[in-house]
Amino acid sequence: MPPAAAVRSADCAQERLYVTRPYLPPLEAFIPYLQGIWDRQVLTNNGPCHRDLERRLAEYLGVDHISLFANGTLALLTALQALRITGEVITTPYSFVATSHALLWNGMKPVFVDIDPVTLNLDPAAIEAAITPQTTAILPVHCYGRPCDTDAIQTIADNYGLKVVYDAAHAFGVQDAGGSILRHGDLSVLSLHATKVFNTFEGGAIISPDARTKRRIDHLKNFGFVDETTVVAPGINGKMSEINAAIGLLQLEHIDGVLAERRMISERYDAAFDRMPGITVVRSDAARRNYAYYPVLVRPEYPLSRDALYGALKEADIHARRYFYPLISSFPMYRGLPSSDPARLPHAHATADQVICLPLYPGLSHEAQDRVIAILSRAAGAA
Ligand SMILES: *Cc1c(COP(=O)(O)O)cnc(C)c1O
Predict the structure, then answer these.
(1) Does the beta carbon of 94 sit less than 6 angstroms from any atom of ligand 1?
(2) Are 334 and 227 contained in the same domain?
(3) Could you tell me if 138 and 259 lie in one domain?
(4) DSSP per residue over 120-136, as a string?
């Protein structure tokens, strides 16, 4: 019997590639954090790691008030509750389902409007056209970390008296010309899930504009408790544990390296795809980007359909993902809504049918990346 390694190389078995892989700091570096938690025996409820992470994240992101959560979905649910939003909320069908689920779970009615075909974010003109007397808020997504048209959205919100909650799950560390993208709207919500740029395994956060709002959110995420005997609201348990907060503190030491590596990989893809016929690179125009995803649109001119390319990648053990396909408005709990009519969402549907997100994560080797590039180039060259 040949040794296993020889069998593997004889089979030409290649590393299986996924669209992302969570970044993990060195395990040894985490042990002292665990020791601290064991020594203190404070496991949750705004412990020292939690307080420290809130302070350091606010500093890193350039925002004043941040409340940590157990995950981004609980943060979204709580943000909507904190602003006492009711009725209709205008949102995008081109996102992860949690965006709209947070509305349904809160008894609110999602109203889908179309995206801009270039930015893939909500089209402000479409937002304005969808406003009714029942509209109370807008829930936009900084899709792939590309900033929404925050000025236009704020103008509409001011004119019609609407709240704005940004689903900023993709936008950790992103800045526009004025600073953090998280300063816009009434509240912004981050996800710190394993698959996101900055992860605490599971985690989320709400960025508030002032201390009073942060206080309300901090009460809501802890059952509504203000002190031992006072409950001021029907809150939820949204608290982040000390273990997750400790991981966040350690991740923060590595985030600049993670972002630099993401940028390098992203620019290598750009060089390969910028002039490839039929492939459109979806690129952010942010002043500071986070390279969270590498989405490309497979146009009709490309020799393969998006799904055929997806299949060709899969055959080579490269597991790219069609984010975001299907659209949220196509799922059974949404498709009966009048605003889910595909005729009203032409750009969202066209994009969902063309998009594919390629592998992008720290640790993706040049060789692995070249396998991805080769498959797209080979098909393009065959035209
Ligand atoms: C990841 C994500 C969420 C949900 O965050 P969790 O931390 O997984 O609960 C919400 N919205 C968008 C756009 C996301 O990508």
Answers:
(1) no
(2) no
(3) no
(4) -SB-HHHHHHT--TTEE
pTM passes above 0.90:
yes
Tell me: do 216 and 282 sit in the same domain. no
Q: Using CA positions, which residue lies closest to atom 6 of ligand 1? A: 72
> Residue 286 Cα, ligand 1 centroid: separation in angstroms?
20
pLDDT of 11 above 70 = no
Whether residue 73 has its Cβ less than 6 Å from ligand 1? yes
Ligand 1 closest atom vs CA 141:
13
Cα separations (Å) of 67 from 6, 76, 149, 244?
52, 12, 25, 14
What is the 150 CA–ligand 1 centroid distance (Å)?
20
| Closest among 34, 69, 63, 26 to 50, alpha carbons compared | 69
Cα 346 to Cα 260, 269, 298, distances in angstroms: 36, 28, 16
Q: Among 261, 266, 264, which residue's Cα sits nearest to residue 372?
A: 266
Query: Over 70: is that where the pLDDT of 1 sits?
Result: no
322 and 214 housed in the same domain: no
Work out which ligand 1 atom sits closest to the CA atom of 74.
9
Q: Which of 286, 51, 102, 292 is nearest to 184 (CA)?
A: 286
- Whether the per-residue pLDDT at 382 is higher than 70: the answer is no
pLDDT tier at 2, thresholds 50, 70, 90: very low
First to last CA, the chain: 45
The residue segments making up the domain with residue 332 are 3-11+255-382
Which of 223, 252, 281 terminates a domain? The answer is: 252
List, in order, residues 6 or more apart from 35 with CB less than 8 Å away.
none
- Residue 358, classed as helix, strand or coil, is coil
Tally of domains in the chain: 2
Is the CB–ligand 1 distance for residue 167 below 6 Å?
Answer: yes
Atom in ligand 1 nearest the alpha carbon of residue 196: 1
Q: Is the CB of 141 under 6 A from ligand 1?
A: yes
Query: Over the stretch 44-76, which tens digit does the pLDDT of each residue have?
Result: 999 999 999 999 999 999 999 999 999 999 999
